[in-house]
User: Fold this.
Amino acid sequence: MKAALLIVGLGLGLVGCAGDGVDSDASSGSVPAVEVPVQTGVKGQFEKFIALVDGLPEDVRGTPDIRREEWTAGMKANLIGAGEVFLPEAEKLLADAWDLGEFDYSAINSEAEEEELEWLSAQMSNSARAKVGSKFLMALSEAAEEGGSYDLSARAIAANRKLSERLLGSNRVLIENLVALAISSISERTARLIAVKGSFGEAEFKILQGVDKDYRKALADALRSEWTGGLIPYLEKAKLPETGELAGAKFDQEATLAFAKQYIAVALEEVEGTGLSLDKANQLLEEFLGEIPEDAEEKWLKDQPNGYGKALILDSLPVFGQALSATVKSEASEGLTEVVLAAQRGLAETGKLPETVADLRKFGLKDGVVDPYTGKNFGYDPVRGVAWSVGPDGVDDGGLDKAEDWSERAKDRVVRVK
Assistant:
């Protein structure tokens, strides 16, 4: 099924881009020049960036993370050496918007499943390599900060943010947008940690605060493209399978199409409105699917009225709720980063942390920067030196969780400001 194939592809894309680098016994040494193939036009910039990532020394590319204690000073020196070549070239490629083009749904057909998977795999491979470049920029920023090169550190973070912005602006496939959210999360966390332990001056702060992103619009654009460009045309042509577990199931194509269109309209309205939940869309989904037993899903669906239609919807829609959660989480992460930067600017200028969120706004925190889970100010306690978002449950627990613990068990999303 095409819809199922796309969801499998999205799942693989997230798994393929989420892991850390592989351990390596790297040492310092000369860094070869990065050769970038000659291409023309804006559309080639993403491919140029991927070539730039591939041109990194193998030991650096395989281990773009410097926070492990066993890593040597030589590895950090190698990171800086590679960064001297990589960063200026990356900044050039990130200077203009990328046009990666629309996702070509017409290339997917039910008669060439192996080719489809290879094609999707190629898309995901580029996304995964983009994240490797992101992790390298993160590692470079941390190594530069540790060595006192604060401007270089800030430039690396700014490039990382710009990378996520460029991917968010792409309509190629939703995978690109989800990878962009992961990249943004990396750069925001690095910006917070470096701001807290670094000695940034005014120029570095300006570099860090120079990028604005509209996560919700980017997600809504990607959802609209995925749903209207892929799902609806597929449902219009869908036919009952002649073989397999669902062969002979009931299929009300008209009702399935009508529901999909209703769900899409409601979901997009929620995303482009508050962007905080898919409560209405999820309620519609639950009403359409009913109570599906986990241990006998396909057998149960086969016996249901419109069981095949339910199977198609089940394969196609729930994953986008995960994308929304990632989007709002990234928005909260960026907002908290701006709180930290304002707090550190206040500390640098006055010798003490600002006392209230209102005082933070005197040091560069914009009025529109609020907790996306509440629409109100982030939590802030200068005495304890923390700021926090209330998280998905919408309940303010006082920011008592461990800083930078964004796991599901954490009630609030807490960051350190000193």
